[in-house]
């Protein structure tokens, strides 16, 4: 944890808890409030600012900011997805390294070179297998559900925008005429 000059991080929380309007707010305390309002979790704020998690909680509470568990869950899922993506990238890089090592194996002229290349292939293969993220059936189901929910929300948004822009329900005869007219305009624009 970084060392800070001047007052200790814990005193920042006490300063805000006192709620004395004449006392200026410490810049790091302001940072805590801003980060908390952006949905950054308590532990991450503590890590970024060097202020203890207890003080982060006091500072946030003094400003009426609560840490929402659902935001933390969303952030955690996003972080896990990002880590899985990075892990898959590393695994892909290892597969490319295996291909290079196979080339070295084919070009080996001595038993020693052959043994080193074979060992490299073995080690790289094991590493690639360990780094390839496992996707469970439940993960695939959850991903598919989320895709369908996002698609449904997107379609609903497009429907609302169309109805607001044109003033007719999307499933009406007038809407079909509008779509046909739009298609005809697109076809005439595409023709030379």
The structural class is mainly alpha
Range of strand content: under 5%
Q: What is the 3D shape?
A: flat
Question: Which regions have little confidence, pLDDT < 50, spanning 5+ residues?
Answer: 19-23
User: Quick one: biggest sheet?
Assistant: none
Mean pLDDT: 82
The share of residues in helices is over 70%
Tally of domains: 3
H/E element order? HHHHHHHH
Q: Give the number of DSSP strands.
A: 0
N-to-C span: 67 Å
Number of H/I helices: 8
CA gyration radius, whole angstroms: 29 Å
Note the main attributes of this structure:
192 residues, mainly alpha
Describe, in plain words, how this protein is organized in 3D.
- This protein is mainly α and 192 residues long.
- It folds into 3 domains: 9-62, no CATH class; 69-131; 137-190, no CATH class.
- It has 8 helices and no strands.
- The protein has helices spanning 9-18, 27-37, 42-49, 53-62, 69-107, 111-131, 137-166, 173-190.
- Helix 5 packs antiparallel against helix 6.
- The longest helix is centred in the middle third of the chain and has 39 residues, at 69-107.
- The radius of gyration is 29 Å and the shape is flat.
- The protein starts with 8 loop residues before the first helix and ends with a helix.
- The relative contact order is 0.06.
- The model is unreliable at 19-23 (pLDDT under 50).
């Amino acid at each position: 944890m970084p060392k800070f000059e001047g007052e200790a991080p814990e005193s920042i929380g006490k300063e805000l808890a006192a709620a004395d309007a004449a006392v200026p707010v410490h810049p790091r305390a302001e940072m805590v409030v801003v980060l908390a309002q952006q949905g950054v979790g308590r532990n991450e704020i503590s890590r970024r600012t060097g202020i203890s998690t207890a003080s982060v909680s006091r500072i946030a509470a003094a400003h009426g900011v609560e840490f929402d568990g659902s935001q933390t869950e969303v952030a955690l899922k996003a972080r896990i997805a990002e880590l899985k993506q990075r892990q898959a990238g590393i695994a892909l890089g290892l597969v490319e390294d295996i291909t290079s090592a196979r080339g070295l194996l084919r070009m080996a002229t001595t038993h020693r070179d052959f043994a080193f290349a074979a060992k490299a292939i073995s080690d790289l293969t094991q590493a690639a297998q360990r780094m390839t993220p496992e996707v469970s059936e439940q993960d695939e189901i959850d991903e598919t559900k989320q895709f369908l929910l996002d698609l449904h929300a997107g379609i609903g948004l497009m429907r609302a925008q169309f109805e607001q822009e044109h003033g007719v329900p999307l499933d009406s005869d007038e809407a079909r005429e509008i779509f046909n007219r739009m298609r005809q305009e697109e076809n005439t624009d595409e023709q030379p």
